From TrEMBL:
Residues 10-77 form the HTH gntR-type domain. This is GntR family transcriptional regulator. Keywords: DNA-binding, Transcription, Transcription regulation. It comes from Fusobacterium periodonticum 1_1_41FAA. InterPro entries: GntR_C, TF_FadR/GntR_C, Tscrpt_reg_HTH_GntR, WH-like_DNA-bd_sf, WH_DNA-bd_sf. GO terms for molecular function: DNA binding; DNA-binding transcription factor activity.
Length: 213
């Protein structure tokens, strides 16, 4: 933990949140599952309040779980649970592609392609772009039940999907996969869009499986 320090440029809550998130995803806590609020506050030389707020933010990300009267726990899923989630995601997002292929505006696709070309210096920016692309495809499927079903998968997918954001090589692969999906959508090529979406999701699970701890 000695490599993580508080700075004065950002709010304290945000800094503690970012530090803890990086520590969890980089396996800084190793075999620890339960997070100790008092110990973390002492090591970061802050009061327990920003640590508590950071826990809430991490819980919203699906990285930790807050269990009343028991504490805060790093979320861990078995590879079988993750595989089930990715199987469901593949089916649902392919359906979203089929439903949006003739609806999603081409100027919206052009905008997303331009966003992909921009430099994304931070992990949060890369995650934001990735989430936006998938969210817009799902939004233009015009199927509320489909959207709700995918949302139900977020808790189990969020932690492991963030792993790839810390890998520059995988990040570039994801950008290329997104580009192929968007170009196929722009051309209204349903078969190609389905193929590239399926490949993208399967590549994502393959990466998670290889790096799952």
């Amino acid at each position: 933990m000695e490599n993580f320090r508080i700075e004065k440029k950002k709010t304290l809550n945000l800094q503690v949140y970012e530090i803890l998130k990086e520590m969890i995803l980089s396996d800084e806590f190793k075999n620890e599952i339960k997070l100790n609020e008092v110990q973390i506050a002492a090591k970061l030389e802050v009061s327990p309040t920003p640590v508590r707020e950071a826990f809430r933010m991490l819980a919203a990300d699906g990285i930790v779980e807050i269990i009343p009267w028991k504490g805060v726990f790093i979320k861990k899923y078995s590879i079988e649970e993750i595989e089930e989630a990715y199987q469901c995601r593949e089916v649902l997002e392919i359906l979203a592609v089929k439903l949006c292929i003739n609806i999603i505006p081409k100027d919206e696709i052009e905008r997303l392609l331009k966003v992909l070309k921009e430099n994304h210096d931070t992990i949060e920016e890369r995650i934001k772009v990735s989430n936006e692309i998938h969210s817009i495809i799902i939004e233009y499927s015009n199927n509320k039940r489909l959207k709700n079903l995918i949302t139900q998968l977020n808790d189990i997918l969020t932690y492991d999907r963030r792993l790839s954001a810390y890998d520059g090589i995988r990040g570039k692969q994801i950008d290329q996969e997104h580009k192929l999906i968007l170009k196929a959508l722009k051309e209204r090529n349903e078969n190609a869009a389905i193929f590239y979406m399926k490949e993208h999701i399967q590549n994502g699970f393959k990466y998670v499986k290889e790096n799952h701890k």
